[in-house]
Amino acid sequence: MDEIESATSTAVKKQKTRFNNTVILFIILAVMFALFSYIGRPFFFSRLNLIPMLNNLSFIGIVAAVLTMVMISGEIDFSVGGNIGLTACLTALLLERGLPGWLVVIIALCGGLLMGAFNGMLVTVVGVNSIMATIGTMFIWRGIGYTLSNGESILAMNPVIDFIGRGFIFRVIPFPIILLVVFFLLTYVIMNQSKWGRRIYAIGANPIASFLSGINVKRVKFINFLFCGFTASLGGLILTSLSAVGMPQHGQGLELVIVSSIILGGTALGGGKGQILGTLAGVLILSILYNFLTIMNIYYFYIQIVQGTVLILVVSTYEIRQAMARRRI
Amino acid sequence: MEKIERKYSAFMNFLRTPTPTLIGIYIVMLVLFTLASRNFLTIQNLKGIFNNFAVFGILSAGVTIVMIGGGFDLAIGSTAGLAGIVSAVLLMKGIEVPTPVVFLVAIAIGCSVGLINGLIITKVGINPIITTLGTLAVIRGVCYFWADLNPRILNVFIQNLGRIYVGNVFPITTIYIIAAFVILSLILKFTRFGRDLFTIGGNENLARLAGIHVDRIKIISYVISGFFCSIAGLILISQLGSGRPEYGTGAELEVLTIVVLGGVVVGGGKGNYLGVFIALVIIQTISNGMVLLDVPVYIRMVVKGALLVLVISIDALRNRKNLQLY
User: Fold this and answer.
1) How far B32 CA lies from chain A's nearest CA (Å)?
2) Which residues contact B16 (CB under 8 A, 6 or more apart)?
3) Residue B1 within any structural domain of the chain
4) What does the alpha-carbon distance between residue A95 and residue A55 come to, in Å, rounded to a whole number?
5) ipTM exceeding 0.85?
6) How many domains does chain A have?
């Protein structure tokens, strides 16, 4: 009886700390935002900077939200960047052929599903480690993107495509930001309110136990990868629309930013732990940081150094805290 | 496990490794490419193939050590690029540091990158792939500090380092690779370090319980990988005749494909250099064959990615112990 009570109390404590972590992240975010607005005045806190920044953040955010689900289930998908590049090229190429916009969107999203299915097959059916598998497919998607576009950028102008990235709803709210909010709501509800989300957490925490208690682990993982591919190609559509051009370099190096923001948000690399809201905070913090560095006129290559360092630092702090928690037990 | 292995002779054990399959694949490929292209089986072309794989060969020598120990190194391309561009800058007109110092600096860069990787991976305990993905980006960014200089290599010794042909036919770089592979094979086979590395790759916890200094040996393996990166960087600037910050980009994909195709198991514990060498020749022959057959450059990228996925899938299927249910 005592054991059960103590177990429940630690569980409650854990719930509280997890909640606190997210809150801390949001406080850090607010402080950073205020600081950057002050240092980077008058450029940082202006409509001309913030709206594009939010637009640019939107596709990173929606991919990160869904990738969080994949990572909580204990897998990872590095191929999202390549997926975005391929989708951008495919979209632009189909538009150039004169296909109607809505059809192009459907084809692009189906392409994303196919890519997700391929990743899912590799991981669940063949049994490849998802890190290795998706590093391989990352190169394949990007290579196909280069092949399709012959290495060039293709203009992508079409009313439907334009609307995805640059449209406004009620003439004020940019459409990508609506998409961002919708995706975060959707993933939040899935992860926190649905049976599906509970299953994902269970699989991440202990796949064998989940399998023994009757969860179809492979199916859950497969559908996660499908969802991830779908979202990445939606991100590709947004990026194509924002830049009005489809080029194979789209989304290059994005996996670095996305994975670091997810881990910054408190998701465990091994799965089983993580919060969608934490990911939102992580995405916002890193996007604001990189935007600020750009505004301060820092070379892209040096920003790359910062990105790599941030990834290592974030994961290090996470691992060190884990080790400390283990010692406490 | 031990009993089963003892039942077979050394030859049978060799047959059970993936190496014979690789030799078979290579022979089939040779025949196909010879039939498809007239220029394939000429001395000139074969010289080219063997000289071209110098950088990947040297890199895969280090990565094999890391992967046998259960680690992973994605930062090799960037590290080679950094060692290369720093050496090139040191050799620039007006600076012209003596050649041995350049070598020392390059090796120091490679080894310290390896040391940093190893320390982060073992002491902090981050997944090696994530760590080296981060250091890959950082080091590549550091390479761009010298982006504006565009140094050319005028030092004759460095020029010859990767370009000489012994007896006008046999590239000296191949000798480096063979020497490195033989020495490392001997180290793996006959030293305590080698045996410990295999033990760690097979089961890290067991190795720790058996009193092996797991962290130290893993760090050494990353330092060895960094050392070979710096040699590869020197060969890069020697063969290309200049120093550019983007040298070595994407090498990790190729090297990973070579090492896994060569039978080094992802996750560690298994692997030999003979397989890696044959895989090296195979991958380079495929690249060369695609050039001879006029395959467009971007499709080659797809083929290389597909090859990696295929190779790791085969690796996964081969090492699947029982039916995976979850």
Assistant:
1) 24
2) B8
3) no
4) 22
5) no
6) 1
CATH value at residue B130:
1.10.3470
Residue B127's alpha-carbon distances to A257, A315, B118, B122, B260, in angstroms, are: 17, 9, 11, 9, 19
Do B126 and A135 lie within an 8 Å CB cutoff?
no
% of chain B exceeding 90 in pLDDT: 37
Structure tokens at A65: 């939200």
Contacts of B174 (CB under 8 A, 6+ apart): B50, B51, B54, B57
- Put simply, the answer to whether B301 touches A312 (Cβ < 8 Å) is no
In a domain, A162, yes or no: yes
Task: Tell me whether residue B132 is in a domain.
Answer: yes
Q: How many CA atoms lie within 13 A of B128 on its CB side?
A: 26
pLDDT value for A144: 92
- pLDDT band with cut points at 50, 70 and 90 for residue B320: low
User: What amino acid occupies position B166?
Assistant: V
- Is the entire prediction scored with pTM above 0.90? no
pLDDT beneath 70: ranges in chain A: 1-20, 329
> Does position B38 have pLDDT exceeding 90, yes or no?
no
Distance, CA of B190 to CA of B284 (rounded, Å): 30
Question: B313 vs A305: CB contact, 8 Å cut-off?
Answer: no
**Residue A296 within any structural domain of the chain:** no
Range of the domain at A50: 41-251
**Both ends of chain B: CA-CA distance in Å?**
25
Chain A residues lying within 8 Å of B326, measured CB to CB: 203, 207-208, 210-211, 217-218
Closest-CA residue of A relative to B306 is A140
**Is A48 a member of any domain?**
yes
Q: How far is B123 from chain A (nearest CA, A)?
A: 10
Question: In this predicted structure, what is the pLDDT of residue B184?
Answer: 94
What residues of A are in contact with residue B135 (Cβ under 8 Å)? 308, 312
Residue A269, in any domain of the structure:
no
Q: Which positions 105-134 of A are in contact with B (Cβ < 8 Å)?
A: 122, 126-129, 131-133
Total domain count, chain B:
1
Phi, psi of A249 (to 5 degrees): -80, -5
Closest approach of B247 to chain A, Cα-based (Å): 15
Does residue B250 register a pLDDT over 50?
yes
| Mean pLDDT calculated for residue range B57-85 | 92
- Please check whether residue B302 is in contact with residue A140, taking contact to mean a CB–CB distance below 8 angstroms: yes
Q: What is the structure's pLDDT at B215?
A: 92
Interchain contact, B312 vs A253, CB within 8 Å = no
List all residues 6 or more positions away from B17 whose beta carbon is below 8 Å from its beta carbon.
B263, B272, B275
Residue B7 forms part of a structural domain: no
Distance (Å) of CA B143 to CA A249, B33, B77, B243, B244: 20, 38, 11, 10, 8
pLDDT for res A20: 65
Please tell me the distance in Å from A317's CA to the nearest CA on chain B: 9
pLDDT of B325 over the 70 cut: no
- Closest chain B residue to A310 measured between Cα atoms? B134
The CA-to-CA distance between both ends of chain A, in Å, stands at 19
Beta-bridge partners for A174: A168
* Within a domain: B326: no
Contact B73, B134 (CB under 8 A): no
Distance from CA of B56 to the nearest CA of A (A): 18
**What is the chain A residue with the closest CA to B127?**
A269
